Amino acid sequence: MVYAVVRAGGRQEKVEVGTIVVLDRIKADDNGNIQLAPVLLVDGDTVTHDAKALAKVTVTAEVVGDLRGPKIVIQKFKNKTGYKKRQGHRQELTRVKITSIK
């Protein structure tokens, strides 16, 4: 079983070939592919975490589509002053499918 832990958008994700992962918005190249930076590679019983060995490893993903996350409501309130503030936020996300780990 081959899997890798990749760095994507300030987080780390465990991925295998065929895994669909939702990441922060990433711009793809002309073919719709992106390269993800590996932090750890597990290939059977071999675990690779050396930076020089990981420089040779490529994790390629195909962009499936762009989407937006759930709405988060931010409310601020101060008692007895009449201060109320309400703000919303939806994170821009990208859904990718891992195509190869070499």
TrEMBL record:
Mention one GO molecular function: structural constituent of ribosome
Check the record and name the Pfam families matching this protein: Ribosomal_L21p (PF00829)
Coiled-coil positions: none
Against PROSITE patterns, the record matches this protein to: RIBOSOMAL_L21
Q: What is this protein called?
A: Large ribosomal subunit protein bL21
Q: Name one GO cellular component term.
A: ribosome
Gene assigned in the entry:
rplU
Q: What does this chain do?
A: This protein binds to 23S rRNA in the presence of protein L20.
Species: Galbitalea soli
**Which keywords annotate this record?**
Ribonucleoprotein, Ribosomal protein, RNA-binding, rRNA-binding
Q: How does it assemble?
A: Part of the 50S ribosomal subunit. Contacts protein L20.
Which NCBIfam families does the record associate with it?
A: L21
